[in-house]
Amino acid sequence: MNKSVITNLIALLVAVAGYLLKHDMLFYVGIFAVSGAITNSLAVHMLFEKVPGLYGSGVIPARFEDFKAGIRDLMMKQFFTEANIDKFLSEKTGEASHLNFTPIIEKIDLEPAFDTLLKTIEESSFGSMLAMFGGNEALMPLKEPFIEKMQGSLIEISSSDKFNELVRDELEQPEVMGSMRDKVEDIINKRLDELTPKMVKDIIQEMIRKHLGWLVVWGGVFGGLIGLISANIL
């Protein structure tokens, strides 16, 4: 049972108790608490659902396109600005950030590089000499060590300060930066186009509805206080 239901039940019980016991103050507190809690419950409900005859209800699904545009602007104007991309590429000291290329390098198929090496040797002046010792097959045992050493060398190069400075300088070129932002914006637009009004409503409900329950609780509390004050005045 959520906070809203509990608040409404308590307020209703207080009102009923005041009525049955002929206790005006208790009755006023209960009635005003019920009024405040129900009003806020309806307000929370109207954020997410369209209520026939109540203008402005269902505002979140109704403003679906504005919601998408807001997300797009937030991402592009606050996160993926040239200044923020530059911060991502640079350390606080001003040096280039060291990007971790190791997982990428480990997935690269380096067999074509070894095949190219064999072809180069075969077409060189050493080709005829190599043929005397079994041709390319004689070099096949070197394949795995070559790939392992090549990966190690690439990882070492990609970890160097000079390499990361070159990467940063290249990515900070205006045309590259613009292309990068265009691609990010295209990805965001495609993902937003997949959203439906119901998905947007569910996302927002999941984020804030449990917190909105406190609106009902405080509506009941302040309604009860107003009822208490009203009873003393009357």
Structural class, from helix and strand content?
Answer: mainly alpha
Q: How many strand units?
A: 0
Extract low-pLDDT stretches.
Answer: none
Shape: rod-shaped
Rg, rounded, reads 34 Å
Largest sheet: none
Q: What is the count of DSSP helices, taking H or I runs of 4+ residues?
A: 12
Distance between the termini: 36 Å
- The whole-number mean of residue pLDDT values reads 81
> Could you tell me the strand content as a percent range?
under 5%
Order of helices and strands: HHHHHHHHHHHH
| Fraction of helical residues | over 70%
Report on the structure:
This protein has 234 residues and is mainly α. It starts with a helix and ends with a helix. It contains 12 helices and no strands. Helix content is 77%, strand content 0%.
Relevant terms:
234 residues; mainly alpha; single chain
List the helices and strands and how they pair.
Elements: H1 3-20, H2 24-48, H3 59-62, H4 64-79, H5 82-89, H6 102-107, H7 111-123, H8 127-132, H9 143-158, H10 161-171, H11 174-193, H12 197-233
Summarize the structure.
By secondary structure, the chain is mostly helical. The protein has 12 helices and no strands. Helix 1 runs parallel beside helix 12, helix 2 packs antiparallel against helix 12 and helix 4 (64-79) packs antiparallel against helix 11.
